[in-house]
Structures are given as C-alpha cells and as structure tokens.
C-alpha cells in the first residue's frame, strides 16, 4: 500500500535516475526464478548515492512515525535491507537488528543478529517486494522469538497479486514508498520508455511468470 503518492513519484524518479531500476523491454532480464522480465530492480544501489539514501531513509523514518508509533526496534531483512534499515534506525534513535535467511551453522546459530528486548514491537524494513516469501520468513523469525511485528515498510514493490495474498495470509501489513504503477507512469512521463515499450511493461505485469515464454 502506498501512503503518499507524491513520495511514490519522487522515489520512482530517483530509482530510475540512479539506475537502481532498469527497464529493458527489448532485451528482457532473466530472474533467478527463471522468469523473463523487462524490469530489474537492485535497491542496494541506493546506498552508493548519499542524497538518494538520505531521501529514502528519511521518508521511511517519517512513514514509520505515522504508521507505527513507538516501536521498540527496527529490523532489516538480509542482505538487501541491512544498510537501509540501519539508516532508518539511526534517524529514529532505535535499536537495530537484522534477520538472516537461514540460521548460522556455527557459533550461536543466530537467525536474528543483534539484541531485542523481550516482547519487542518491531518494524521490518525491506528493499524490494516480489512474491513476499523471503520477507515474510523474516517476520516469522521475529515472531518465533516473541517479538510483535507492527508491520513492514519497503522501498519498492512489483505489486504482484501473490505478494498481496501472502501478506494477507500472514496478517502482516505492508507499505512501500513506491510501486510498479508509479514507476511506469514516471518512466513514461520522463520519456524513458516508448509507447510500445510501455505497452510491453503493462502486459508483463498482468502475468509475469508466463510472459515472453517461447
């Protein structure tokens, strides 16, 4: 869910400007899942641009204040949201932890790195939402140690139906700074994509798992 349409536009413009999101309808990317896609998103790149990371972190911190008053901690999902989660926690003067996809096989075998107080109220930070499965595993890990997950805030979502269903099933609230609809509108307004390519981007969004299959 988008909280602020103007922030969504600004975030989409920023991600396009720094090439965190690349649009290539004429030469689709191959995702690890095997899907073919005209879009590729790597929001880790935001961390390399001081003004961009300040903008994203400040907007996330402001939205947390609005959506989730008085959290006890901020948690970042490894690895993509560790850096941004830490920046947000710093702005809010809150403790920070991050969640591994799997527990370590040695030492204390931690899945959650850092220290949480008992029954802590936590806001989870994510960089990108596709199907939501890996993000929701982080929520499960926090709940397993007794934390109360207030909700999740991400930089960008593709807005897949399956993600909406997964978050609904797990009863977890998701907000994002921007989404696919705002992105392709911004790309069109900037002239980043032609009208033909815009049609391709819209078509992909309807059925991404089966798009461009020969």
Q: Extract low-pLDDT stretches.
A: none
How much helicity do the residues have? 40-55%
Q: In whole angstroms, how far apart are the ends?
A: 34 Å
Oligomer: single chain
**CATH topology heading:** Rossmann fold
What does this 3D model show about the protein?
The chain has 214 residues and is of the alpha/beta class. The chain has one domain: 3-Layer(aba) Sandwich (Rossmann fold), CATH 3.40.50. Helix content is 40%, strand content 21%. It contains seven helices and ten strands. The strands form three sheets. It has a six-stranded mixed sheet with strand order 7-6-5-8-9-10, sandwiched between helices. Strands 1-4 form a two-stranded antiparallel sheet. Helix 1 packs antiparallel against helix 2 and helix 1 crosses helix 6. The protein is globular. The mean pLDDT is 92.
Strand and helix map with partners:
Elements: H1 5-17, E1 21-23, E2 29-30, E3 36-37, E4 39-41, H2 50-67, E5 73-77, H3 82-92, E6 96-99, E7 112-113, E8 121-129, H4 133-144, E9 148-157, H5 161-169, E10 174-179, H6 180-190, H7 195-206
Question: Summarize this, please?
Answer:
The protein is of the alpha/beta class and 214 residues long. The protein has seven helices and ten strands. It is globular.
